[in-house]
Write the structure tokens for this entry.
Amino acid sequence: MDFGYPHFNTMEGERISPTAQFNSPALSDELNKIRADAALREIPVSDGETLNFLKTIVTALKPKKILELGTAVGLSAAVMAGAFEGAKITTVERDENFAAEARKNFKNLNIYSKIDLIEGDAADVIKGLCDPFDFIFLDCAKVQYIKYLPDLIRLLNKGGVLLADDVLLFGYVAGETEVPKKRRALVGHIREYIAAATSSPQLQTTVLNIGNGLAMSVKL
Ligand SMILES: C[S@@+](CC[C@H](N)C(=O)[O-])C[C@H]1O[C@@H](n2cnc3c(N)ncnc32)[C@H](O)[C@@H]1O
């Protein structure tokens, strides 16, 4: 499929921003292996530019408590754990096979004690969480982002950062690319999320053209 944009690759899901060429993450051999294996098996993990941004922002902010929604096989959690030694990460995954594989990866990477992997649906899990976080990486069911937002604001410390992945969704959300019928509902939900995050009096939000689009919100 040709999207007619130079920064779009030919496959849906491989939207490449113009800056991606400069923003490859420097990863350990072990992490590169996990990344390559995920790509081979078509496991949805964050693209290189997003991983690089995650690494940069976690290095800068040094968040002591991180919440991630959407673990997959643990690549982004491992990148965050490596970016700040003092971080404790809670990550949520509903797929039991991915969760088992992520646990195995955390053990092999010697970061198991820093990461609490909760198996379950993100909507249920976040309802049961009370202690606040300094940084939240939102990377699971995109259609639910808008539903999660009130709980994520509740769970964020003042000055804490909420980073939502994939908010530009192959160019559909910003109107760069015509939205196929099967994506219309999803695009509508993401637009609602962006509208809520950018207009919330509790948040200061910027949408960044990084990877597949990141919405970065700071709690006021
Ligand atoms: C894009 S992947 C996460 C990639 C990971 N953050 C990384 O970059 O390495 C999204 C993950 O969210 C999980 N997921 C989807 N819906 C979920 C839900 N409602 N609750 C918990 N996990 C969910 C999927 O099983 C999938 O593993």
Summary: The first helix runs from residue 29 to 40. Residues 1-11 have pLDDT under 50 and may be disordered. The beta strands are 65-69, 88-93, 115-119, 133-138, 156-165, 203-208, 214-219.
